[in-house]
UniProtKB/TrEMBL annotation:
It comes from Ureibacillus galli. It comes from the Bacteria. The keyword Cell division does not apply. The keyword Transferase does not apply. This is Spore germination protein. Keywords: Membrane, Transmembrane, Transmembrane helix. PANTHER family: LEUCINE ZIPPER PROTEIN 4 (PTHR22550:SF5), SPORE GERMINATION PROTEIN (PTHR22550). Belongs to the GerABKA family. Residues 1-21, 489-510 are annotated as: Disordered.
Length: 510
């Protein structure tokens, strides 16, 4: 081994022993490239493009899967080729036509920018590098949401790109007061997270609390917004009720921002979080504001009633038939009990079997391919229900009650709270089977007490019911005309509560 080789090996070993944050870009281009190939591996998607003019030798490093090749070719390589004759040394300011260009000297900065989709320009004989933004690659386009569908309204939904999602909100909220706080979370994933709020509308103390909780997160990776949701929700006892709202629709998140709420966008997921959240937010559909107020009010009342029905109907059915038969009209009681002749199980076990069967079918329908999932859940429910009745395992009334409960649960706009209703339904079913109507009422009272104890970033979960705010009831159980909804929610918005100025429309009659 020659003396120069020994010196290079000794210098590289000395650099490898340095702490990661102290390492700098080396003078030797070949040594730099070897260092980064050692980090990513020889067979990785790290690519190197060499360029040379007279005594100046350079190389462009980039990760194939994270860059937009067209941007790199046109705005980095093509521009450098045109400037080769004018570039004397790397100490000069190199001008590229990309949106962002940074001069960096730290080894750690080079790795971070490579993983963010930047192209890194290294020079032989100079301990500096240039990072040019060329991020791109294949991304899912903006499409219609398959979960939150509407008959009338926008069809756009978020995708996995954080910048695209911010842009979708910017196109709807054209105000310079829309503030964005960005942070990277995850020691290994380096996931970009953005907190959005409208300054002057969102409460400052809530904004500070959200940012503080996000800053305190220390985790190896963040792969979905649920990681953030569980780590920043209010420290309270276990509750099946979600206290952070999520949506795939930009119009829904934009409407929340205009009310004074705060949005949290996580790169790599199309689901955006919205805080603080109250129970009314989960029971409100996007389409309530795209239809006339009278139609929207009817739909809100119908959905609210269906939500309550999906929780209490099986327990009420069991309580009446087991303990309180005198409350059922005699003809109906004779018809129901007559259908149950020969059924070997008690009414509570009968309902529980059908409920569990339906939950299994629903889960199977979600996991199967879309082309067969819906057919399996529908046909399976019909076939199994009819077969169970014909075999004398369950009564016809039980099948009707379970089917009506399931259909009612489908009307709930938010998937999160629909799952919560399914969990509570089984608890009330157990209480009703042992204590009858007393158990059902006891369970509902305990449920209300629990809901009253919940907070979402210090905002009461039952607001504006408890605490009572008369003005916010205009958009709770019904929706009044837009001309009457002139103020933002009391518990959420800052001092800027007016949404609409008092204006008079002059109408001339002929």
């Amino acid at each position: 081994m020659s003396r120069n080789d020994k010196e290079n090996e000794q210098s590289s070993s000395e650099h490898s022993k340095e702490p990661e944050e102290n390492k700098v870009v080396l003078y030797d281009l070949a040594e730099n490239i070897k260092r980064y190939k050692d980090v990513f591996g020889e067979d990785s998607d790290l690519s190197v493009r060499y360029m040379q003019h007279e005594n100046l030798k350079m190389a462009i490093l980039f990760i194939d899967s994270l860059v937009e090749k067209e941007i790199m070719d046109q705005h980095v390589i093509h521009v450098l080729n045109n400037q080769l004759n004018d570039i004397v040394s790397a100490d000069e300011e190199i001008i590229l036509s990309t949106s962002k260009t940074k001069k960096i000297t730290k080894h750690k900065e080079v790795l971070e920018h490579l993983l963010q989709g930047y192209s890194i320009i290294l020079f032989d004989g100079y301990p500096i590098a240039y990072a040019a933004e060329t991020a791109g690659g294949d991304r899912r386009p903006v499409t219609e949401s398959s979960v939150e569908t509407v008959v009338r309204g926008p069809r756009e939904s978020f995708n996995e790109s954080i910048m695209t999602n911010i842009g979708l909100i910017r196109r709807r909220v054209h105000t310079p007061h829309l503030q964005i706080y960005k942070k990277e979370l995850g020691k290994e994933s380096k996931t970009s997270v953005a907190v959005l709020y409208i300054k002057g509308i969102a409460k400052d103390n809530i904004v500070e609390e959200v940012i503080s909780r996000i800053d305190n997160i220390s985790i190896d990776a963040v792969l979905d917004s649920l990681y953030i949701e569980e780590l920043i929700e209010d420290p309270q006892r276990y509750s099946p009720f979600p206290t952070i709202f999520n949506s795939e629709r930009p119009d829904r998140i934009s409407a929340g921002l205009l009310e004074g709420r705060i949005a949290i966008i996580v790169d790599g997921t199309p689901v955006v979080l919205l805080v603080p959240a109250t129970i009314g937010l989960f029971l409100t559909s996007n389409e309530d504001y795209y239809q006339r107020y009278d139609i929207s009010s009817l739909m809100k009342i119908l959905r609210g009633g269906a939500f309550v029905l999906s929780i209490i109907l099986p327990g009420l059915y069991v309580a009446l038939l087991t303990y309180h038969q005198e409350m059922i009209p005699t003809p109906l009681l004779i018809a129901v009990t007559g259908q149950r002749e020969g059924v070997p199980f008690g009414i509570a076990i009968e309902v529980a079997i059908m409920e569990i069967t339906f939950e299994i079918l629903r889960e199977a329908g979600i996991r199967l391919p879309k082309t067969v999932g819906a057919a399996i859940s529908i046909v399976g429910g019909l076939v199994l229900g009819q077969a169970a009745v014909d075999a004398g395992l369950v009564g016809q009334g039980t099948v009707i009650v379970v089917a009506l409960t399931a259909i009612s649960s489908f009307t709930t706009p938010s998937y999160n709270i629909a799952i919560t209703a399914r969990m509570i339904r089984f608890i009330l079913l157990i209480l009703s089977s042992f204590l009858g109507a007393f158990g059902l009422i006891f369970g509902l009272i305990f449920l209300l007490i629990h809901l009253n104890s919940l907070r979402s970033f210090s905002v009461p979960y039952l607001a504006p019911i408890v605490p009572f705010h008369k003005g916010d009831w205009k958009d709770l159980f019904i929706r009044v005309p837009w001309s009457h909804m002139k103020e933002r929610p009391e518990e959420i918005s800052n001092n800027n509560k007016n949404r609409m100025e008092n204006s008079k429309v002059n109408r001339q009659t002929k």
